[in-house]
Amino acid sequence: MAAAVEPDDAAVQAAVTRARALMEAQAHDASSVQTLKERMLHIHDDADDPELQLDWDLYREVPATMEQEEALLLDYFRKLKFIYLELETKLRFLADLQDDPETGQEPQILSTADVTQREQECKRVKQQLVEAKTRVRDLRAEIDGTADALAAPWAAVERGTSEAHVLLSEITDMELELAKIKAAEGTHGALTTAEAEAVCDEQILAMQTLDDETTRTVQEMEQAKRELNEALRALERLKAERSAAEKRANEAKLGMGRDSGRDWELERLCTKHATMLETLQAALGITRLAAPTARDLHITLAPPAGEDGHRTLQLRFDEPGGALVDVQLLDAAQAPVALSESVERYCREALHTNHAAALVQAVWCTYVA
């Protein structure tokens, strides 16, 4: 029986030894965690550490690095927050599992009701945290909106400041130039009463001189206007005299020929040729003669009885009244008329001999061809 108990006692002793070792390790971890916690709680004491200070001059020169630094710091504090929460959880967990020799606090044993109550408390705190984060986001959005709204006024202020600096520089330059002018002319301070009166007298005399010159100029202008009117009247009189002289000259020129200047022989020849042209037009069936240009002549021929549509003979000369160079025959639709070989030969002979009447005869041949 004793032999049977000894192994059980050995197992118990081994379990006790392992439990003590585990508790010592937990106590060591707890002390280390407590030390880290105290260090984190007193981290603000190192705020004056040069390594933790930001180089604002660098950010002023390169503003884009501020955003990068902000992103890195945000990531760093996010990790630091996670580490802190993890350590705080471990501390509380260990404090609840073991006794505290210093305070005499015993391990905390929670019932189901306690767990439920703490869960509700955690939910309430978490809800408060969510609301706080929402307020922070709203505030940040409002700050961003305000910053965007202030961008344009700030740019305007910057432009105004730049303009003000430029104006101040110009004013300073003008003051310096004015001081140089005063120093060069020997003028110091304001004018005395006597000096001011003298300047006023000089200005009054100058104004009177200008007034006299203006009056004299106005009088000269009036005199020039009167002379101009007289010259215009003389010009009108000369125009009337010129018209009368030209009329008398024309009358004298007409009186130099026979029958007061009329050439009866020329008129007779013109009448004869006009009558002959009318007779030829009626005999050849020409209904219209037109000369679009000085070197073109269009002759429109009426069709003979029983034929449809008139035809137009277009003649072209090398110069006005010169030799024929081209001939073309068009129908009523202004389309070229096909000529037979005999008619074409006849047209070539007429062109060679410069015989326009023969061309008209060739046109009449096309009606019977």
From TrEMBL:
Residues 75-152 form the Kinetochore protein Sos7 coiled-coil domain. Pfam families: Sos7. GO terms for cellular component: kinetochore. Keywords: Coiled coil. This is Kinetochore protein Sos7 coiled-coil domain-containing protein. It comes from Malassezia nana. GO terms for biological process: attachment of mitotic spindle microtubules to kinetochore; protein localization to kinetochore. Residues 115-149, 207-255 form a coiled coil.
